[in-house]
Design a protein that fits this description.
With 200 residues, the chain is mainly α. The chain contains 6 helices and 3 strands, in the order ααββααβαα. It is globular and about 50 Å long.
Amino acid sequence: MSHQAREAAAAPTPSGRGRRCLILSLLVAALIYGADQLTKLWVVAELPLGQQFPVIPGLLWWQHIRNSGAAFSLGSDFTWIFTVVMAVVVVFIAFTLRKVRHSFWAVGLGLVLGGAAGNLTDRLFREPSFGQGHVVDFIAVPNFAIFNLADCGVVVGIAVIMVLILGDRDLTQPAGHRGVKADQSATQEPETEGPSPKND
């Protein structure tokens, strides 16, 4: 058996690679979701609403708030819209994961999925009512919105996805494979000039 044939036989099949990427995404999502929900349970049980608890003086503190809107409490009168948006994001990512063959795409989508699911759980099941629940936020830094671990997962996940898009990384191709543009440029043959005419 030739070296190329051995490599082809040892290479994972697309379905096997897809399963591994799916499992990776779900593990990342579960990690973010679990950490987010556990920290929120701790905040609700241990931190009085509104009070500040310094962690790194002047740089980081815990402050338990309930957010009905988006970052900086924007859109606080339209909580149900954020609930619908988060639900759509979760469903869209869940369907997209079936096509993922790139491990970094799996990580990025898993981060966004876990974060969106964490805040969606608050929207659905926390006070004041189903679908209009207020999200538990508690991580505070100077001159910025108070946020939570779900927000961190979404932001980091989007950053990973943006880097992959800018790098022309196709989510349906394994790591190390360039996107369509790179394939097209690689297959284009350089133009060659014909022989110059001889002078008599």
